[in-house]
Amino acid sequence: MDKNKYWEITRSDWYGTSQVLFVFIAVIMISSVFLLARYWYLWIMIIAGVLVLLVVWHAKNFSYLCPRCGKVFEVSKLEDFISPNGVNKKYLRCPGCGKRAWTEVLRIKEKTVHKK
Ligand SMILES: [Zn+2]
User: Fold this and answer.
1) pLDDT per residue as tens digits for the range 33-49
2) Which Gene3D superfamilies does the protein's record reference (predicted)?
3) By the 8 A CB rule, do 50 and 27 touch?
4) Taking a C-beta distance cutoff of 8 angstroms, is the pair 27, 46 a contact?
5) CB–CB of 71/96 below 8 Å?
6) Whole-prediction pTM
7) pLDDT score recorded for residue 116
8) Interval between CA 74 and ligand 1 midpoint (Å)
9) For 71, what's the count of Cα atoms within 13 Å in the CB-facing half-sphere?
């Protein structure tokens, strides 16, 4: 794997991730207090919007390392959203060897241009 492009999840990455999650939960709780009773449809839209942002952020900033063949790959936002998560692992199908496995989550150092 390319050490210049990816790194393993560090304590500061966990800190950043937990901050994002904290903001996410705070937005849900605060908006539910003000909106849930009368404007529940608006509340659902806000939650959906924040959830999409969270998934886009995660898909852009993290890659996955296959434990079987060592290939590092990125996944689509949809796959990132629907695939099961471990603590720092994710159950994905590797495009290199085609097998499903618990992949290791890696942080992308720089935002790379997606060639899709
Ligand atoms: Zn593989």
Assistant:
1) 888 778 888 888 888 88
2) RNA polymerase ii, chain L
3) yes
4) yes
5) yes
6) 0.69
7) 45
8) 12
9) 15
